[in-house]
Amino acid sequence: MARGIARTMSSRKSNQWAEVIRDGGAGTLFKAHPDDHELADKINQLFPDSVPVTGEQIRRDRQRFHNRPRRGAQVAEEEASPTKYVIRNKAAQLVVREALLEILDNIFDNFERNTPENLRVEVVVHPETEAAPGEIVITENSGGIEKKRIVPLIMLGFPERSARGIGAWGEGFKMAAFALGDEVEVFSTYPGEESIAIHFPHGWLDPSNLLWKKWKVNTYRVQENAPPEGTTIIRVNHLHPQVLKWFGLGDEQDADAAKGVCKELAKYFGEIYAEKYHSLVTQGYEISIAIAVGSESEEVEFASRVRGRLARHLAFLPWLRPIHWTAQFETQIEEPSEEHGVRAAKLEVDVYAGLAATFDDFQSYSPHPPGVEMWGNGRLFSLKGRISDESVGWGYKFGGAGGTNPTATASSRRLTIAVLFTADDSRDVPWAAPVKNDYNRRSEFYAEIQGLLAKVIRLFKNALSFHVSRLRPFSHAWTQWSDEEKLDKLFEDSHATAEFKQDFARSRFGKKILAFRPDFSFQEMTGKDAEFTVSRVYGISTTDIANTVTAAAETKDSCEQVVEFLKALFPHLARQAELEREFGLAPDEELQL
Amino acid sequence: MSHKEPKAERDMMLELTADLEGESDRALAIVAAAYLDHLLRRWITQELGLDARPEAAMFLFEGFNAGLATFSSRIHMAKHLGLLSEEDARDLTLVRRVRNEFAHSFTGVSFQSQGIADRCWELAAAKVGEQPPSARECYQKASVRLMVSILLEVQSLKRGDRTGGQGDSQDNVKS
């Protein structure tokens, strides 16, 4: 509050409306004036010397201060975690984005557990004002938190998992909430149960505060504005200064920065939950997420599914087509809490891999393009960038005459690998729980995953430096470009003149190349133990691939070489054009082979 | 009468409206009406330029036979001066009647009492937007709306930035 007062004093105009809110006098005004603009107008007349307020601001203030639920009588006192240092230290390491993801994970999980018809999540970030400290309010209708799940939410070490889940209202939630602010309040109404409020008071996780020694957390009835049935409202209050600054809402509030953060977050959420979103939508659910930062707001647009996105960017060379490899892993692991002290861990793996033909429109949240992106139960978790170390098979040494994989280099970016893990028990997904921002190299399935991905890399390793221009006719983009664009792309590094390109376009072979439409089907593969090699999968030798890559490299600067290479790459089209010429067919007549 | 600066008047209103929230039915009815009565007096005083003529104001508003000593007479006066619309005057009359019911009954009266509730449901100011679910909330909403509107008129007269004023006070001359 001291900072708020300092700001008030330094401002040229005070915000008297904020003072009214702070002093508790705004409630009756909100009630008496249901129209936001009318109230704004009256407030501005009442306080002509104050900072003017807008109808939009009144709308937000009404939502934030008037319509928010309020705690009623205490219901119970639950024993919370005695290891507050653990939460505190982990919370300190969480960045804002990942903290928000963790909360959203819990919401998605709760939704899948309760399966109401639709899911609407609204994340609103309020700046600090004279009226109140900075705050994040998340309103969601994932079904409400059942009374029996309240204890895991409060206590450490009691996660509540659900089938194919990604969150658990457990340790991760508390870490995430306290990574954002100092006070956490959760209001929820589960169908058929009384509305409930849980309150972690300001100072609960602050060693310098007397509440630090209080391990209990109170649960309350909801006195006013209880959330509708199936709805939960999470308020994280007293946002940390660095969090406010990250949102562009720090001491020097920056509308452009707030707008940028809002857009970026919307894009981020849209990518991270793309698989989850599409999976739920195909089951008939409606899912939407909105974000508001200060006065800026944005609706999340979800990215395409991994398979579709890769189909648009990979090269579908007939003899080195992208693969879709499915495998299941299973093992017994020790679990003292289970009946026999062990449990069966199961993991389903879907690997998509291929050579990239176009590099635009790739994920923006992978700062290092080469490598493997990983998804767990529909949620992207390789958040620290695609993984390009030996843990995913780069530099892997196969036994016997299996050879060695290369280490990841700039050329590796042509190889795009996405792995989708699915597990009924989210503990079996190899993510770095509870934050799920990286690959867990201590996973029970580490060796299997590494071996599988090493085989994937081996399939493509000889083609890693394939000249990208030569891959373009096998891309989805090829079907979208005009003939002029195709010619420009095809000869872009060969100094071809406009006349040469036109001659090529008019030639029998050129016409066929421009009209070529690749087959966009993946090479389907199954089984974890199969010995997949280039010769077994594609029926060609690694030497053939290496020679083709070398030949492609030699086309640089020479347009004639490009044409020769294309003839080698499309032997059937070249032969067809030759036969048409031999048979004396008219220029627009085609031989039906 | 005491002459308060608009800021003090405004702060008093905000404090009072905030306090209304937790008041009993009787206190809410009487306090809200009393404050509206007070605001009407301020408004008429401003409008007629009586701030500069304390004896005349005393004659009109105070004393046994004063013409504007009652809430009812002030409502009528404000209406005839063109300060209040028909609708607002009617609402103020309803507020006054509700106040009287509370003030003159010793026991067994609340916003749920039939006569009181009926009057509250009639309040036009309570019907702006969504009508509140209870008679008490209707009364509170209408009272606060009327308070804010009248206070704004008083403030604007005081500042002299209203063009439609009919009084001859120094403030209005300035405008």
Structural write-up:
- The complex is a heterodimer of chains A (593) and B (175).
- Chain A is an alpha+beta fold and 593 residues long.
- In chain A, 36% of the residues lie in helices and 19% in strands.
- Chain A contains 22 helices and 15 strands.
- Chain A has a nine-stranded mixed β-sheet. In chain A, strands 13-12-14-11-10-15 form a six-stranded mixed β-sheet, sandwiched between helices.
- In chain A, strand 4 and strand 5 form a beta hairpin.
- The N and C termini of chain A lie far apart (81 Å).
- Chain B is an all-alpha fold and 175 residues long.
- Chain B is globular, with a radius of gyration of 16 Å.
- In chain B, 40% of the residues are buried.
- The C terminus of chain B is likely disordered.
- At the A-B interface, helix 3 and helix 4 of A face helix 1 and helix 7 of B.
What is the structure about, briefly put?
The complex is a heterodimer of chains A (593) and B (175). Chain A has 593 residues and is of the alpha+beta class.
SSE arrangement:
The complex is a heterodimer of chains A (593) and B (175).
Chain A (H helix, E strand, L loop, with lengths): L1 H9 L5 H7 L3 H7 L3 H11 L8 H12 L3 E10 L4 H10 L2 H19 L3 E9 L8 E6 L9 H5 L16 H10 E8 L7 E5 L15 E9 L7 E8 L1 H6 L8 H18 L1 H9 L3 E8 L2 E4 L6 H8 L9 E12 L7 E14 L15 E6 L2 E2 L34 E8 L23 H15 L7 H4 L11 H8 L7 H9 L1 H8 L7 E4 L7 H5 L3 H13 L4 H11 L1 H12 L11
Parallel strand pairs in A: 2-8, 10-15, 12-14
Antiparallel strand pairs in A: 1-6, 2-3, 3-7, 4-5, 4-7, 5-6, 8-9, 10-11, 11-14, 12-13
Helix pairs in contact in A: 4-5, 6-9, 7-9, 17-18, 18-22, 20-21, 21-22
Chain B lengths: L5 H15 L4 H23 L6 H8 L9 H10 L5 H19 L9 H9 L12 H25 L10 H5 L1
